[in-house]
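Support reply, case 0932

Customer input (verbatim):
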Amino acid sequence: SGTGWYATATGAYDPGLLDLLGLDPALLPEVAPTGAARIGSLTGAAAEALGLPAGIAVAAGTGDNMSAAVGLGLGGAGLLDHPVLSLGTSGVVFAASRTRSTDPALSGFAAADGTFLPLACTLNCTLAVDKVASLLGLHREDTAPGGEAVLLPYLDGERTPDLPTASGLLTGLRHDTTPQQLLGAAYEGAAVTVLRALDTLLRACGLDPDAPEVAARPLRLIGGGAQGRAWVETVRRLSGRPLVLP
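Our regenerated output:
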């Protein structure tokens, strides 16, 4: 479903899109269920090119976030509409849902188990914060609370919200502003962007982000950033939600 050619409403390639692109459906691989025991075998030509034995089984896999959802116990037989926040080069929020999202701010992926995986992805997360730390000559964990500085780390533009030509913005500097406070402001700017995307995701799942029962639902934190104290503390403070670190 990440190709852009697949319609989650029908569970098949979208013939209208393929026709618009002038793409012959015969060129596309068969869509198989994730985890299908065997959908084919490695051809002789492919085996020679890869240095692998011919005839070994080829099975259907899935994407990184879909795999994470399986590992976290999300899906039709597990947790539905429970949000996950992945802190990596990009910031990603997703949830397994029975509701197929048509919100243009989200990617309407299919989940590995037949449910749906509405997802929002920001462009500036751990990489942007690490860049600010490097510019300041600080370790990424060397942050301090307080201060009036606001840092919006849209260093490569931004995709959620859709601002491809945006750049980073720093305001609120004072004589007593410290480098550690500036780095803390970078964490906050990146986290707020992801948490705004989380609100969009929850609404797409038919939930009110401000409803007490929704706000009390734990936020599962994964990705490289989830191993860092500063990231965890910033997300906990700004989201006001209980966090689960699997």
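We compared this against your earlier run and they match. Two observations from our side: The two ends are 26 Å apart (CA to CA). The chain has one domain: 64-245. Please reopen the case if you see a mismatch on your end.
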